[in-house]
Amino acid sequence: MALIQSLCMLAIFSDALVCRQFAMKNNTTTTTTTASTSTLTSTIANSTNPLAPSRLESIKNSYSELNLLSKTNPSDFIFDFDKAVTGVSTGTGGRTVAATAANFPGLINHGIAMTIGFLGPCGINLPHTHPRATEINFSVDGDFQVGFFQENSASFVMNEIHKNQVAVFPKGAIHFEQNLNCTPATFVAAFNSEDPGVLTIGNSFFGSLPATVVGASLGGLNITTIEDIRVHLVQNPSVGIAECRQRCGL
């Protein structure tokens, strides 16, 4: 009887062990399958969207240049300003196209960026700043009035640049580019940061700050007047100064 009971207990224990091993194997398979599915989904997302945040973050977090290159494709190092669908600002005075680390993976961890300005007749790239970069601006085929203001107590600096000339705008300075011609003109702006940032002065001051703060900054201007100004804020680039518009019949 004791032998029979021992054999029965052994059988029960063996069955339980087999079931436990099967369950563990099944769980491992499920976990592996889930992980594989997640990896596959991420891979598909990155291949179909080269600007997927997870992919850009992975490139940004590379521990060396070789590691970075292993995560990129040849196409990551080419940017087409004519066909860009991101980094584009279009207004009545033309359009600007910016290539930064956010839409051009090849720039990540390389400390440079670029914007092309395609300005129409009398078009102006409205006063703005780049909080994280100094800019060097090259005139491709036009005559531009350019200027910058660096900080409180500084003097305003204004110049004209012509084809094949450049102007420099220090980091954080308020600056602008005004096409002085009655024909389209192009400039190329290069930056010493892959993420220079941009803050358009008028739109940000009147459009983003509380109306009460704006009013206080302008000697107690009432909120109704500020709201009226907000209605007339324009998208960058805009048609520029009155003298140019009159001269060109715009």
From TrEMBL:
GO cellular component, one term: extracellular region
Organism per entry: Adineta steineri
Start and end residues of each Cupin type-1 domain: 79-227
Family matches, as CDD domains: cupin_OxOx
InterPro entries the UniProt entry points to: Cupin_1, Germin, Germin_Mn-BS, RmlC-like_jellyroll, RmlC_Cupin_sf
Leader sequence residues: 1-16
Locations listed in the record: Secreted
GO molecular function: manganese ion binding
Keywords: Manganese, Metal-binding, Secreted, Signal
Recorded family membership: Belongs to the germin family.
Predominant cellular place of this UniProt entry's protein: secreted
Gene3D superfamilies registered for this protein in UniProt: Jelly Rolls (2.60.120.10)
Listed name of the protein: Cupin type-1 domain-containing protein
